[in-house]
Sequence to fold (592 residues):
Amino acid sequence: MMRSLLFLAVLLVSLCSAQDGKDPLRNFCRIHSHQTTVVDRTLYINGGLVNWEPLSADAVNYTNTWFRAGDLDELNVGFPQQHVLTNNDSVPAVQGGILWPDASNKIIYLYGGEYNNGKPEEFRLWFYDIVYNTWNVSNASTTDVSRASWGAGVAVQDRALGYYYGGWLSETSVPDYQGNTPLKDMLVYDMLGNSFRNQSGPDDIPRAEGVMLYLPAGDGGILIYLGGLRGSDTNETMTSQSMTEILIYDIANNHWYTQKASGDRIPEARRRFCAGATWAEDRSSYNIYLYGGASVGEGAGFGDAWILSMPSFRWIKYYPEDDNNDPYPHHSLTCNVVDNAQMIVMGGSFPNHTMDCDVPTIYGQHGLDLGKANSEGAKWARFDPTLTTYKVPSEITTVVGGAATGGATVTSPEEGWAHQDLQVQFKRAYTPAARAATRAVPSPTGNSTASEESAKHRKAVIGGAVGGSIGGVLLLSAIGAFFVIRRNKKKDASKEGYDAAAAMPPKDNMDPAGPNGMSSPPPQYGWAPQTPISPYQTGFPEHYGENRTEPGPGQYHNAVELADTQMPANNEPVEKYGSEVPAPQEMPVNPR
Ligand SMILES: *[C@@H]1O[C@H](CO)[C@@H](O)[C@H](O)[C@H]1NC(C)=O
Ligand SMILES: *[C@@H]1O[C@H](CO)[C@@H](O)[C@H](O)[C@H]1NC(C)=O
Ligand SMILES: *[C@@H]1O[C@H](CO)[C@@H](O)[C@H](O)[C@H]1NC(C)=O
Ligand SMILES: *[C@@H]1O[C@H](CO)[C@@H](O)[C@H](O)[C@H]1NC(C)=O
Ligand SMILES: *[C@@H]1O[C@H](CO)[C@@H](O)[C@H](O)[C@H]1NC(C)=O
Ligand SMILES: *[C@@H]1O[C@H](CO)[C@@H](O)[C@H](O)[C@H]1NC(C)=O
Ligand SMILES: *[C@@H]1O[C@H](CO)[C@@H](O)[C@H](O)[C@H]1NC(C)=O
Ligand SMILES: *[C@@H]1O[C@H](CO)[C@@H](O)[C@H](O)[C@H]1NC(C)=O
Fold:
């Protein structure tokens, strides 16, 4: 007994010390199963799991206890430079949760997710106050509200609502819970009323590990749910949600629909992918771009990008053009659309690649140019902070008609509308009103130009819902490799270099992420475990390795310095909000 306790203590110490002294940016190798969101011009990155370089020496998934911010206007090798914010150790470090931003009040709520280590605490709603750089606990009543994980969620800015549909309840997210239960309800958090409600989903079928997105269409906005796992009609087994079965929630009318999608090619069923939405200027098409994901059942997963164009409900393959999968399948990554035009795909777990880091110089960020607006007309490109308009790419216009600015001519699903009301809703462009802050929020410093800029960006954020799409595991390294190589080497990143792949060996139970660290589907739901694939293959693609160059030390030091200066003493508002700081406010009471 004593000996095993001692062993445990030693084990714990060694596990802890393995993270000691690690710098989340300097020692970055990979991040996955994390949560992200964008408020104003900052991308926030919270929780999830990290791997340290070199991966070959230590493949353990460590809890990401850091909270980071990427500045969209400060680029490092073509991607937002990230900075480490002060965190509060009491905030649970979870995976598979969601960040719901209140962009008007400069607040980010953290809901859901599972714990890597130890027992989950009772659910309390933590939120990050952007102005004061503090984490606070909301006094919202959480009676009968559990912490779910790997559901699908989104925040809707004009209504100040956070949505979370489906997901799992398990012992890693709910104290003293037994088993793994997939949910069929939708949890709604009212940010101004500071209250939760738990309403019914589209049907009695539980779902998890899919994605939900917001479109500014219809009477008051529309939520689109796709992918992931669903319960079976006949038994307790979870099966895949077909990618042709799209669930639609009409916010204003509180009504769910199911619409069939079609296409010459349809993406394979998947879970834990990520996605983002954008739309043509004239709203003749709303286009959801998805990337990657894990297989349902056996398979290494996906590294491909697809578009679901609506209201035609046509699937269109975006990347790679041919029928092949990308050679770097990955899942449990995040997608954030900026200004309707670009999507930052970040991190992911790469079951087929156990040795390589995910472009550490740019912390696993990859850029999908939704309208191919870069000078090369490429799909994957560096982030361009000045790009604010979305042009519908030829891949979409060849299927739905029209041109870059819209004018789609195919505006109904191939097999017709599931319900007449849906057609009506999709014809109505919805323009969400800007929502005023309900607490005193100082405006960012800067002269008038800067304020106009930020006002413009705020509008853009309000126009969409601020995502926080969680889900699948995406392997972005390949994409990073793609453009970095083309840029640096003028060498075609063709397939030849991408064949070598190594399998993820099965894990033993010494993994500090715990037996459920990977959220393997619970056995009673018939989840086929991720196939551990045969032995390592040699010959790691050389240009993949080329990306592993260390950034100049300056970049990291700057990051650290900036983090220090952003740490406000005594709850002073962070620097960028200037000196005219209102007195600290309590959370607003719902004015409605
Ligand atoms: C963490 O946040 C809580 C709630 O705001 C606060 O009471 C506590 O002092 C914070 N801890 C640290 C170390 O800042
Ligand atoms: C939360 O705190 C605010 C401000 O102190 C108060 O007005 C509100 O009634 C509280 N809400 C709950 C549910 O306790
Ligand atoms: C929503 O309500 C259902 C039915 O009471 C419950 O099973 C589920 O756990 C609730 N969801 C959350 C996230 O608490
Ligand atoms: C459960 O139902 C699904 C289809 O609904 C079927 O594919 C599967 O084989 C069934 N599993 C068992 C154990 O009966
Ligand atoms: C994953 O690796 C295995 C074994 O090397 C290989 O056969 C398979 O094609 C790879 N899958 C993908 C999607 O790259
Ligand atoms: C402020 O305005 C000046 C002159 O119009 C300009 O040169 C400067 O770049 C602006 N600064 C910021 C932060 O926008
Ligand atoms: C790390 O997490 C990923 C994704 O959850 C999982 O596939 C992998 O097995 C984990 N690695 C280790 C060493 O536990
Ligand atoms: C969060 O807590 C800090 C420190 O107590 C306080 O200054 C701030 O006003 C709080 N934020 C909200 C939104 O209540």
